[in-house]
Write a structure and sequence with these properties.
Helix content is 33%, strand content 31%. The protein is built from six helices and 15 strands. Strands 1, 4, 5, 6, 7, 8, 10 and 12 form an eight-stranded mixed β-sheet that branches. A three-stranded parallel β-sheet has the order 9-11-13. A two-stranded antiparallel sheet has the order 2-3. The structure holds 1-O-pyrophosphono-5-O-phosphono-alpha-D-ribofuranose and uracil. It catalyses: UMP + diphosphate = 5-phospho-alpha-D-ribose 1-diphosphate + uracil.
């Protein structure tokens, strides 16, 4: 069973509080989401493998370590996932970026796919699927299914706020996927919004409401 990692670093929790605040405007929301994504990427990459190397310092050779193993890829779920990409890329600039376009039908709450473009070598990469909100889990589960269908095997899911229902859905549909979140909130409301959550992530990010 994939593990659920609640990232409780004080800076992540502090920024999450500011992001939740209904008085935080679009510009600040966007900046904070990028910053928190960078901090979360730092935590998520803790287990990346290293290998020994030798580097020449001005004073001579030093045994040191560099990243080894699979290359990384980042796959934001459009739209709101886009708000976390730049933060992740600040720490992992060589990562390739794929995009999955999904929106949640407001009546059925089912995800509807409208775009998918992934790096050609997804089978060889470790992929981090990114979306700030894991509500019913329908969107994240579908996104993970799409990239598995295209051959990806090593997948992590990073979100900012999860509902218990979404956690359960991802664990049931994709038991091998580790999930990283800054919070698991109380519940979903009747419209499938996370309570207390932060509202509509896409709208707050892009000022569309
Ligand atoms: C939001 C959010 C997730 C999805 C989560 O996107 O960014 O993708 O809802 O809900 P779920 O877990 O119940 O599937 P939305 O559908 O509002 O699209 P948008 O990002 O384009 O606004
Ligand atoms: N999508 C959002 O943007 N917010 C929620 O609370 C649930 C789905």
């Amino acid at each position: 069973m994939g593990r659920v990692h609640v990232l409780d670093h004080p800076l992540i929790q502090h920024k999450l509080t500011l992001i939740r605040d209904k008085n935080t405007g679009t510009k600040e929301f966007r900046e904070l989401l990028e910053e928190v994504a960078m901090l979360m990427a730092y935590e998520i990459t803790r287990d990346l493998p290293l290998e020994e190397t030798v580097v020449e310092t001005p004073l001579g050779p030093a045994r040191s370590r560099v990243l080894s193993g699979r290359k990384l890829g980042v796959v934001p779920i459009l739209r709101a996932g886009l708000g976390m990409v730049e933060g992740v890329l600040k720490l992992i600039p060589a990562a390739r970026v794929g995009h999955i376009g999904l929106y949640r039908d407001p009546d059925t709450l089912q995800p509807v796919e409208y775009y998918c473009k992934l790096p050609t070598d997804v089978t060889e990469r470790e992929l981090i699927v990114i979306d700030p909100m894991l509500a019913t889990g329908g969107s994240a589960s579908a996104a993970i299914r799409f990239i598995k269908e295209r051959g990806a095997r090593h997948i992590k899911l990073m979100c900012l706020i999860a509902a218990p229902e979404g956690v359960q859905r991802v664990q049931s549909d994709h038991p091998e996927v580790d999930l990283y979140t800054a919070a698991v909130d109380e519940r979903l409301n009747d419209h499938g919004y996370i309570v207390p959550g932060l509202g509509d992530a896409g709208d707050r990010l892009y000022g569309t409401k």
